[in-house]
Amino acid sequence: MSAFADSAFRRLLDVTVAGVLLVVLSPLLAGLSLLVRATSPGRALFRQTRIGRHGRPFVLLKLRTMRADAARMGPAITAGADPRITPLGARLRRAKLDELPQLWNVLRGDMSLVGPRPELPQYVARYTPAQRAVLLTRPGLTDPASLAWADEAAMLATFADPHRAYAQVVLPRKLALSLAYLERRTVWTDLALVTRTAAHVARSALPAVFRRAPAGATIRPVSLAAPASRASTRSRRRRDTGERAGRRLPAGSR
Questions:
Q1: What are phi and psi of 209, to 5 degrees?
Q2: Across the chain, where does the E strand assignment appear?
Q3: What is residue 59's DSSP assignment?
Q4: pLDDT digits (tens, 9 = 90+) for 231-252
């Protein structure tokens, strides 16, 4: 497949998948938007300028997971249990449901299903000439770096300066993974990544009751019989004692 045909097919796939998902998930998105509005003051959608293909800025959409005044209260990077994150927002982030509005960015052409995650302008300004190669393609909802750093916030919480750690440690490693993937990328590897990401999101979104039991754990069967009354329990104990007494062996037979 030529480079042009590969790009055209990938764009067709982006539009088809994003369009279908937006229609199918519209009730879920509407319900989550109402919950965001009902549980904390502010708009349901969070808008932020990111850098897209060829260095062009665009407005990225997310469900709001932080306080409306979060930008004035701290840095753009969140680490660990950031107090700016709302209780509902923490659940949305854990399940990656806050990213769903970016399907609209995919449909518009700002993003692709698969590609390097779009960064803030201040971080893109630090890119080396080699790292700027990620700007030759559309940013995406997912890529190998996104899966490898799925617990990024928890990892950043281990650093004294999360902002500096992201810029100097995490971001260069993510860019290296993204660049390595772009060198061997095909439509089929993109489809495989979308499948892996969907499986990861499904595992994150499942309630704990449906999660797999830990290896080696023993699941005991639960009796559905009604519990015996105290009187019947005492009667059964006396009967069992009498039967054991009647079965005693004669003296000298031991």
A1: -65, -25
A2: 45-51, 57-63, 112-114, 140-142
A3: E
A4: 444 555 555 545 444 444 444 4
State whether residue 248 is helix, strand or coil: coil
Flag the least confident range among 5-19, 70-84, 105-119, 194-208. 194-208
Which residue is it, tokens 């060198």? 183
pLDDT, one tens digit per residue, over 84-109 is 999 999 999 988 899 999 999 999 99
Q: Centre a 10 Å sphere on the Cβ of residue 187 and count the other Cβ atoms it contains.
A: 16
CA–CA separation, 194 vs 209, rounded Å? 26
Closest CA to 111 of 7, 2, 11: 11
Contact assessment for residue 100 and residue 106, using Cβ atoms and an 8 Å cutoff: no
pTM of the model: 0.77
Terminal Cα-to-Cα distance of the chain (whole angstroms): 88
Contact 187, 6 (CB under 8 A): yes
Question: How many whole angstroms separate alpha carbon 3 and alpha carbon 180?
Answer: 18
